[in-house]
Amino acid sequence: MKSTAVLGAGSWGTALARLLAEKGVDTSLWARNKDTADRIRQEGENPFYLPGFRLPSSLQVTHDLELALKGKEVVLLAVPSHGMRQTASVISEIIQAEILKHPPRIFVSAAKGIENKTLMTMTEVLSGILPREPSHELAVLSGPSFAKEVALGMPTAVTIAAFSEDTARRLTGLFSTDFFRVYSTLDVTGVQLGGAVKNVMAVAAGISDGLGFGTNTRAALITRGLAEMSRLGLKLGANPLTFAGLAGLGDLVLTCTGDLSRNRQVGLKLGQGRTMDEILSSMNQVAEGVRTSKSLYRLSRKHGVEMPITEEVYKVVHQGLDPRKAVRSLLDRPPKPELHGVI
């Protein structure tokens, strides 16, 4: 694989486009906002979302989606989950109009969320929108990875989930570098659920920290969050071992403890008494856990899966519940066997 289009010029999309371009891959970076694309080209870095990191001159930065896709074999969608459907729809129109002589055939989601209205994963969204051609393949990139640390070249391990071993193997080779280690799996469902649930748990961990609780509480939230992730995954047919891996426990630990986690920062401010409107108005990037808490709450109810932490985060974020009441609600629940519903 010699060419990739990265769609989404946020911190993660920019870091991955930079990684690929530095590796010598023919790479384009698409920004939804024209002014953003112009500034990135002018300054040679992304001053909005990844300042201080020079971009290779070979990286093509554009606002023109058709141009970004031209000649590319792989499309990495690093757009927020709520923007996946619209972006995929435009890609589909371009492909069906036969504007591209050789349209991309592998589409990789790097978003970590569940669509609010449909409760679909990102691969389900893509599958329903992109032209149904045998040559089109879908995959997911996930795992514990802050964009800034990847840009700094710090050792990082992630996972690629695909529906075929050949696709997973080829994508592993595309993204791997001497510091960015990529594993592979065929559990597309489990990897996506892990990426979605961990963001909601990071909001919960942030709330705990904001309320002044300690590491005991955070450890409890991470562990019981893993139980919720596993229960939902088992119900939806995922491999339970996935949640002990990079896309599960690995990403859960990272986002629940790392200061670079936007979701944890949202929770931290909620625990400190700020309102959701105040928090969201002060952010220039998306915290997926805010929207996904609603999706996961509805998904758990739909499938009859017990996810009490998710439910309380949903009530705090979307119904204005006092965080301290949410904590009391969790602690007042009747005692149960630790592995109830997990195995």
Which CATH architecture of the largest domain is right?
A: 3-Layer(aba) Sandwich
Largest sheet: 8 strands, mixed
**Arrangement of strands in the largest sheet:** 3-2-1-4-5-6-7-8
Number of domains: 2
Unreliable stretches covering 5 or more consecutive residues: none
**Helix/strand order, N-terminal first:** EHEHEHEHEHEHEHEHHHHHHHH
Please tell me about this protein's structure.
The protein is α/β, with parallel strands linked by helices and 343 residues long. The chain has 2 domains: 3-186, 3-Layer(aba) Sandwich (Rossmann fold); 201-331, N-(1-d-carboxylethyl)-l-norvaline Dehydrogenase, domain 2 (Orthogonal Bundle). 50% of the residues lie in helices and 12% in strands. It has helices spanning 11-22, 34-43, 65-69, 84-96, 122-129, 147-151, 165-175, 188-210, 215-235, 246-257, 262-271, 276-281, 288-303, 308-319, 323-331; strands at 3-7, 26-30, 60-62, 74-77, 106-109, 137-142, 156-162, 180-185. An 8-stranded mixed β-sheet has the order 3-2-1-4-5-6-7-8, sandwiched between helices. β5 (106-109), α5 (122-129) and β6 form a beta-alpha-beta unit. α14 packs antiparallel against α15. It is globular.
